[in-house]
# Entry
Amino acid sequence: MIDIHCHILPDIDDGPRTFEESVAMARMAAEDGVDVIVATPHVNEKLYDPAEISRRASWLRHLIRKENIPLTLLTGADVNTVFAPQQVNQFTINETDYILVEFPHTHLPATAKNILFQFRIHGMKPIITHPERNPSIKSNPDLLLELLDDGIFVQVTAGSVVGEFGRGAKKCAHYLLKKGVVDVLASDGHSTKYRKPLLSQGIKGASTIIGEEQARKLVFTNPMKIIANMSFER
Ligand SMILES: [Fe+2]
# Structure
């Protein structure tokens, strides 16, 4: 499986503090059946040099190899919409056109549609992260449907599907799955203790709603196309 959203790099955001913890997360993910992780630290308070991400990823790759963990590590970022698209075009997933875009945790801005449009204008394909955990969308999931257009994608958290983020997020995740608007499931993992870098339970949960074949697309085919910068349709 391919996990396109995981805070696995150490000492850069609210993910692991040490490389040791990062390696433990890598091991846990590989044991769950994850083959590829995109390391996506938050870019939400200050802009930093994307080289900060590459440097940590290079060292973690070295450690993963040394420990014989069968996992490929790529880079991206979890980019908050406080930044203008032209400020963050260096933070795309695996240097593709796809970029994880996170709205504020408190609400959905009235300008959300325009924000996404601006990313498109600047040549990027925004992937809206965990809409099922956004309070505005949680209480009215159709708000998300209104935002969707060509070149705008949706990533739901695997844990939300099985209730790890509460009943509201679970209900919303199930609604979005049934509507057929979820493109990817990702872990949004932060540690080995809470918000783990796992996908298998979420995919099992999604299979009961949309069937196994469709559910597998969310962790195999679709994220594979994303990291390869291939187009795909919902
Ligand atoms: Fe995240």
